[in-house]
Amino acid sequence: MAEVEFRNVARVEDIPPGTIAAVQVDDQAIAIANVEGEFFATQHACLHLGGPLPEGQLEGKTLSCPWHGWQYDVRTGKNEFDHAIRLQTFQVKVEGGEVQIAL
């Protein structure tokens, strides 16, 4: 099994608790959320009509799309209304003040 490659995407201080940031890794847009000091990464686009999730509202673990209010748990990617709908998520770790995601 291949080893997971983690890539630096942001500094911890660039994404304060309760906020979301958009990052680009190669050709992939990713949303990174800071929930009380713990970081989670999901795909950038809402599954409804592609709304920009980093521009949405983060309340606790729940991310709301700014376009039509679809809500997701940033820890799992699950849609709050229909758990069969799920965002792609990425493994995250913090090392040396750097937020890293696995591709």
What does this structure look like?
The chain is an all-beta fold. The protein has a single domain (6-102), classed as 3-layer Sandwich (Rieske Iron-sulfur Protein), CATH 2.102.10. Helix content is 0%, strand content 45%. The protein is built from no helices and ten strands. The protein has strands spanning 6-11, 20-25, 28-35, 38-43, 57-59, 62-64, 71-73, 89-90, 92-95, 98-102. The strands form three sheets. It has a four-stranded antiparallel sheet with strand order 2-3-4-8, with no helix packed on it. Strands 1-10-9 form a three-stranded antiparallel sheet, with no helix packed on it. The chain is globular and about 35 Å long. The chain starts with 5 loop residues before the first strand and ends with a strand.
Helix content: under 10%
Q: Low-confidence runs (pLDDT<50, min 5 residues)?
A: none
The major beta sheet can be summarized as: 4 strands, antiparallel
Q: How are the strands of the biggest sheet laid out side by side?
A: 2-3-4-8
Query: So what's the overall shape?
Result: globular
What's the order of the H and E elements? EEEEEEEEEE
CATH topology: Rieske Iron-sulfur Protein
E-strand count: 10
Count of DSSP helices? 0
Counting structural domains, the number is: 1
The CATH homologous superfamily is named Rieske [2Fe-2S] iron-sulphur domain
The proportion of strand residues reads: 35-45%
CATH architecture: 3-layer Sandwich
Class based on secondary structure composition and strand pairing: mainly beta
Distance between the termini: 14 Å
Mean pLDDT: 95
Rg value: 13 Å
CATH class assignment: Mainly Beta
